[in-house]
Amino acid sequence: MPEASYSPSSPNPAGNMIELDLDVQDFASDWSNCDSMSSYVSRMVCHNRTDSLLFANLYSSALNELLETAFRVHGRTGQLVCRFRRTGDVDRIEIDMPSDDGVLSFYQGAVDLARGPDAQTVYLDKLFSSDVPDMALSLLELSVDYGADLSLTRDDQAQRLCLAAELVLEEPKP
Amino acid sequence: MISSDNAQTFAWQFNENDQEFSLQGSLRPQRVDDLTGCMTALENAVSTVKGRFYLNVRRLVRMNNVAFQAIAQKLADTCTNRPDLNIQITTSSVVGWSTRKFAALQATNENISVSEYDSEFYPGQTFLEEGGFIPILRTQTKLTWHHEREILRRHGMQPGLQMADICCGIGDFAVLVQKEFEPGRLVALDHSKSSLDYARKVADEFGVRGIEYVFGDASEMLLESNQFDFVTCRHSLQVFNHPEHILQELFRICKPGGRVYITNEKNSHCLGEPRSETIQWTYNEVAKLWAHFDMDIEFGPKSRRYLQDAGFDDIKMESFMVTNLDGNPQDFADIIQSWENVYAGQMAVERGDNPEFIARFRQGFQDHIFAAKHPKGYAGWPIWVASARKPK
Ligand SMILES: C[S@@+](CC[C@H](N)C(=O)[O-])C[C@H]1O[C@@H](n2cnc3c(N)ncnc32)[C@H](O)[C@@H]1O
């Protein structure tokens, strides 16, 4: 389990709750890291939500898809930094990773598809058509099923990119 | 089908009689190959069934897209190869993501339908949830708290414990516990969304923080195993037709060395003076009426046996009587009146009882109220408390 810094009282300006920082090669050496990290973080961030269990389950599912995608597609060396923020009802997950041209074009393509008008159709298409699991499927699902707002920022000089997903996982209070 | 171990362990199972294949736990494989065993079992299952095939994912808590895609494709292939089959997928509202996710299959295959399992959890659900019971639960808890506040200590409740109240109803017991004992964590679970909404509102209004009110099914909880020091379940085992299933779940989430605390009634022992005989008659009939709907309002004294059979040790048991002398007799009378409304006004009618019976049935409740408010009267409602330890 990677080390974590956790600030329980979240209302700081950036809404920063947790940050995980680990070597990308360590991360990608063991598939179960995705599950452990998403379970751990979801448990930490769910406590003050309306329904903590339901929230944790949804958060863990969404985060796990992001991490599994990063597990498969990332630059070779450097740090993987995951930031977990919250402003009001919006949870923001940032996956900041080393990248190269191939990595960047995968994420750019996937995010464009997910933000595009045909995301739903493309999602169903990929779900049933390809034999090998399609690596863009997770991001498409986040957008189609979870209503996630996905975005990408890049730092070409440092050869890094940051994939961000903004999610509202709970219905507004009655 | 309760996992004895951890709610998260992945498992599958085929029930040939019901033509039902169930998946449960957490399913996040790296490669499709990791699923071979399960996929083969699914394929074999499909090959033996005729007509309707059930896929039960109610207890599938987590699933990644590798697994989903594999299952989706297997089901799509099945639809192509076996056009005679109708595939019925059952999801759970508790899990959160599964209905939406599986609905994609329904949208693309006309032989697949997806339904969310959410109703008919226990026989008397409609009576208790819609029967105007909410205000009465509050009065009941007010009167029982008078006793339980002390009783709880004798059964091991103390500050700082990790605690869960299962079938919490409108959650006022949780609020009282939070104020009195300040547990380290307090999860309150129920399967009534309206009760939970009410509970959150009350906690909010009274500025009580820290209670996690969660939606869930007590017979299949998403809570992890071995995490609570003190698990309470009050007045609820008596409403289930299979209380042993709930007890198994209470056992599972309790830490080894922790305790499960249950309270239940034996309504035929309700009593009053004067007019004891008509009162007695009515409460004997209450017991029969509940039994008709597969619920056991006589559960109280059976607690010891149930706890033993569920694997607990160090059983402690006692009973107490809520009476008209506990506070304002009107509170006691209000409870009895609400019982009359639900039992005579709804359940007896539903059972098809004739007007003469119902009139006599009602009279006993009125006599109980009479006894409660009588200046020299005495009226009681007995409750059994039992707690036991999960062996280390
Ligand atoms: C008689 S009430 C008791 C409520 C509370 N413990 C009290 O003492 O006031 C029974 C409760 O069990 C809840 N319940 C019924 N079936 C359930 C299930 N499958 N899972 C969780 N809660 C359930 C009902 O919604 C109801 O709130």
Description:
The complex is a heterodimer of chains A (about 170) and B (about 400). Chain A has six helices and six strands, in the order E-E-H-H-H-E-E-H-H-H-E-E. In chain A, a hairpin with a 4-residue loop joins strand 5 and strand 6. Helices cover about 45% and strands about 25% of the residues of chain A. The longest helix of chain A has 21 residues. Chain A is an alpha+beta fold and about 170 residues long. Chain A has one domain: Heat Shock Protein 90 (2-Layer Sandwich). Chain B has about 400 residues and is α/β, with parallel strands linked by helices. Chain B folds into two domains: about 120 residues, Transcription Regulator spoIIAA (2-Layer Sandwich), CATH 3.30.750; about 260 residues, Rossmann fold (3-Layer(aba) Sandwich), CATH 3.40.50. Chain B starts with 10 loop residues before the first strand and ends with a strand. Classes of the chains: A alpha+beta (about 170), B alpha/beta (about 400). The interface between A and B is medium-sized, with 29 and 37 residues.
List the helices and strands and how they pair.
The complex is a heterodimer of chains A (174) and B (392).
Chain A: E1 4-6, E2 16-23, H1 24-27, H2 32-45, H3 52-72, E3 79-87, E4 90-98, H4 101-115, H5 119-129, H6 137-146, E5 149-155, E6 160-167
Antiparallel strand pairs in A: 1-2, 2-3, 3-4, 4-6, 5-6
Helix pairs in contact in A: 2-3, 3-6, 4-6, 5-6
Chain B: E1 11-15, E2 20-27, H1 36-48, E3 52-63, H2 65-81, E4 86-92, H3 98-108, E5 112-117, H4 125-130, H5 134-154, E6 162-166, H6 172-181, E7 185-190, H7 193-205, E8 211-215, E9 228-234, H8 243-253, E10 254-265, E11 271-273, H9 276-292, H10 303-309, E12 313-323, H11 329-351, H12 355-373, E13 378-389
Parallel strand pairs in B: 2-3, 3-4, 4-5, 6-7, 6-9, 7-8, 9-10
Antiparallel strand pairs in B: 1-2, 10-13, 11-13, 12-13
Helix pairs in contact in B: 5-6, 5-11, 9-11, 9-12, 11-12
The complex binds S-adenosylmethionine.
